[in-house]
Every structure is written in structure tokens, then in C-alpha cells.
Design brief:
- It is a single chain.
- The protein is elongated and about 70 Å long.
- The chain is about 45% helix and about 25% strand.
- The protein is α+β, with helices and mostly antiparallel strands.
- It has 2 domains: about 1-30; about 35-120, 2-Layer Sandwich (YaeB-like fold), CATH 3.30.2310.
- It has a 5-stranded mixed β-sheet with strand order 1-5-4-3-2.
- The termini are far apart.
């Protein structure tokens, strides 16, 4: 019981200290999840649109700003249907929004650029 008391005396202030230091720096664990990492890498690379994708963007009234700021940023990667281990360029399926998806995008993420292949309006 005595060891537990000493442990808690050190643990609780330590947790509070770490919490306040990381909170001031704006650090969070959300960037380490697979979905967040794939989306961050996607947004950091050059985006190349296939002719089919460009045509579907026009038909669905989706501009590049909406694609980057909403669909990709707030979308969710469907890892079950994606081929994340494919070489040399993994291919991903991204749905937006996360609940009751309206759009589905398929794209390949290579070293230098992302090639967007299809854009489907689901409902």
C-alpha cells in the first residue's frame, strides 16, 4: 500500500505537468492514426487529376478548393477496400463525410504526386 501511495504521488503531478506542457504546444495524438497520416500525406503532395476525374468533378459541381478543404480533409480512408501495401503506388478509397457518405474518391499515392482516378456521387 505504501508503494502505491508513492507511485500515485509521483504519477499524478507528472501527468498534470505533461498534459499542460503538451496542451500549450498544441500537440495531439490525432496525427498518428493511419487515417490522419494518409490524409496529411495526400494534402502535402502534388495532385494530378485523370480526365475521368476532372469530368466527374464538373458533373458533380466539385471545385478543387472544396475537394481539398472538405472532401479530403474531412474524409475517411476505407482501408478494407484500399490497397495500402501495393507497390510502387498504394491506392486508396476515400469517402466523405464519414457518416452517410456522399462522395467516394479513388486515388493512388506515389512518392511525388497523387493521381486521382474516380469521383463517385453516392447519393
Amino acid at each position: 500500500m505504501r508503494k502505491l501511495k508513492f507511485f500515485l504521488i509521483g504519477l499524478i503531478p507528472g501527468l498534470l505537468l505533461v498534459f499542460f506542457i503538451l496542451n500549450k504546444k498544441g500537440a495531439s495524438c490525432s496525427g498518428y492514426l493511419p487515417n490522419s497520416r494518409v490524409i496529411a500525406e495526400t494534402l502535402s503532395k502534388e495532385m494530378v487529376y485523370s480526365p475521368t476525374f476532372s469530368e466527374e468533378m464538373k458533373l458533380n459541381n466539385v471545385d478543387e478548393k472544396f475537394l481539398k478543404d472538405s472532401i479530403i480533409t474531412h474524409g475517411e480512408v476505407d482501408f478494407e477496400r484500399s490497397e495500402a501495401q501495393k507497390k510502387p503506388c498504394p491506392s486508396y478509397i476515400l469517402v466523405y463525410p464519414k457518416k452517410n457518405p456522399r462522395f467516394e474518391i479513388s486515388y493512388e499515392k506515389c512518392k511525388e504526386q497523387n493521381t486521382f482516378n474516380t469521383l463517385k456521387k453516392l447519393r
